[in-house]
Amino acid sequence: MTGTHTAAVLVLEDGRIFRGTAYGARGRTLGEVVFCTGMTGYQETLTDPSYHRQIVVQTAPQIGNTGWNDEDDESDRIWVAGYVVRDPARTPSNWRATRSLDDALREQGVVGIAGIDTRGLTRHIREHGAMRAGIFSGDALAPDDELVEQVLASPRMKGADLAGEVTTAKPYVVPAKGETRFRVAALDLGIKANTPRQLTRRGVEVHVLPASSDLDDILAVDPHGVFLSNGPGDPETQHHAIDLTRRVLERELPLFGICFGNQILGRALGLSTYKMRFGHRGVNIPVLDVATGRVAITSQNHGFALEGEPGQHFDSPFGKARVSHYCANDGTVEGLRCEEVPAFSVQYHPEAAAGPHDAALLFDDFVTLMEARHAQAQ
Ligand SMILES: NC(=O)CC[C@H](N)C(=O)O
Predict the structure, then answer these.
(1) Active-site hit among 124, 236, 259, 338
(2) Which residues form the Carbamoyl-phosphate synthase small subunit N-terminal domain (predicted)?
(3) Which of 12, 44, 106, 205 is deepest in the core (most CB within 10 A)?
């Protein structure tokens, strides 16, 4: 932080205004305002491509205490559209830090605001829903009603097709650690770095493919399994990925999806998705596994969800399937399992960057599915 405080304002589309001081870059940014309840992992949050076009409010009051390091990025840049905090660290301190969070935000041109009553703001979002917003400082400041107009002119998250804006331009391979046991084609809709890391640790060579890849690109990898990543935007717009998923299911290739990948598998199976009021973003969200009755505490970041009831069985074009997991807080769908093709998915983040490792076993389940399919094919 520099010594001088520059005025900044957070403007919501319903006319609610929060005044604070500029944090990170100065200027204007527009996006959907959402809150994240993680008490840790702000660097991973900021660099998660699923937050593209979202202004993130951190409910943890003190942010930036451990600065910014060169190891924890989940992608090659900060993706959030803007950042809202209460009390930014004045003296960051950590042995791995190479700069402050404020410096990282400035370097990457990310407009933020500090000194906000993030508790009041979060209660407002919980009640009225995630909505469009803008942060304005420096030359971008103008009379409030003009700022509200600018926010109202910005695009909504519902209907936003964003995977193409965050995906890799070219395919790349992340080699397995130790012996290569399996090859996976991972469709990058906004993949986080920790996902290939989790797979490679289990002897999987990961071929990360652009979102526009077709079935031939996937088959060219000669994969033992296909992975559908997390990603930003409205799953309803993902016609290409949904169609591709159907092609993969037809071939009975083992398939595992996370978050956006869960929504895409669900849509491929004939379920619909809807926009939640304020979504799930945090690192302690309880999920119940219907089959075992066990609860996992999970890392999450989503604003859309699949329609469905806990434990519901349904017929899909690929045979019987069920809602395998649901959220213990609000009963929303948190996972799917196909019973006649080797495919499953979860709405949460087993790669947990940041977050608890309760769900890491799901990567083992994916490997088991590939093993079983491989044994069958021999
Ligand atoms: N992390 C994700 O994959 C998010 C999925 C989707 N964009 C949502 O908001 O629900």
Answers:
(1) 259
(2) 6-136
(3) 44
